[in-house]
Design brief:
The chain has eleven helices and 14 strands. By secondary structure, the chain is α/β, with parallel strands linked by helices. Strand 4 and strand 5 form a beta hairpin.
Amino acid sequence: MHPQARAFVLPCIAGHIGADTAGVILAERPDLVDDVTLLVDVGTNAEIVLGNKDRLLAASSPTGPAFEGAQISCGQRAASGAIERVRIDPETLEPRFRVIGSELWSDEEGFAESVAKTGVTGICGSGIIEVIAEMFLAGILDVNGVVDPAMAEKSPRIIAEGRTYSYVLFEGEKTLAITQNDVRAIQLAKAALYAGIRLLMDHFGVKTVDKIGLAGAFGSHIDVKYAMILGLIPDCDLENVGPIGNAAGTGARIALLDRFKRDEIERVLRRVEKIETALEAKFQDHFVAAMALPHGSDDFAELSKAVNLPERKVVDTQAAGGGRSRGRRRARPRPAAEAE
C-alpha cells in the first residue's frame, strides 16, 4: 500500500459471518423495508440474513464446495468449456445444453464449431443445479434424489454403475455423466443451506418470505427457478427472487465513499441477532426434511404456479429396492448408507 493510504474494515457479525455479510446488508438495506427479506451469499460457507426494519437475523451454514464444482465427478470451475445451462426432454430424456464461451445451445447449428477451441470440458455450479433439477422434472430422479432404474429402459443415457445408475449428459472426448454420488453431494449441500434458512425463519416466526436475493459469483449466475426446484431456497413468488450481484463489493464501495454509511452499518450490525446453527437442536430435523426434492414437507405453492412439479409420493425405503409407493403426502429421504 501507499504509505499515506488508509484502510477501513467493515465490522464482522460473528466468526463465520464476516465483513462481506456486512457489505451485503449495507448494499441491500433489508433493515429499511417492511418486507421479510432473505439474503443468501452461497459459497463453501453460506451466509444468510433474514429480516426487515423490525428485526435482523444472521447465520452461517456449511454447504461445502459442491456448488462450485468440487466433489462432482465432472465438476469444474466456471470457465470456457463448462456446461452452464441444461434442459432435458421429459419424453426422450435427451439433453440440450449451453457452455461458457458460446451463445448456442448444443442442438443448434454451428454449436460444434463454436466450442471447437475449448471443447466441452465439465459442468460448473449453475449447470449442476439445472441438470439435477431437470432430471427431477423429467422423472429420472425421484423425490429422494435416487436415479430411477426403470428409466434405463426408456433411454440409453441411464447407465448402471454398480448398484446405482448415472445419467450421461455428454459423450465426446470426455464423457460427462451425473452419478448418484453427484446427486447426493448436491443434496447434502442444499439441505444444509435450507436448514439454516428454516432456522432463521423459525426464530423470526414466519413460514414464508416476501423477497429473496442471491449474492456472490455463484448466486448471480444460477437460475432462481431451478434453485427453487432443487430446494436450495424456500418457496417465494419468483417475481421477487433474483440475483443481487457482488453485493459485498457494492457495500465495500459504499463504505469507501461515504464515511457516514460506515457509522450507520456499525449501528445496524449491533441489532443483528446471530443464530448458531451448530447449537440448534432443530437443525438436524430441518436438514433431513430438506434432503428431498424440493423438500420433504414444505409446500412450494408459489413455485407450482410456474412449474409442473412431479407428484409428491411417500417412498417405502423398507421395501425391496426402495421403490414401493404408499400414498401422496410426506416424502422421506433415504438413509445415506441405503442410497449409496
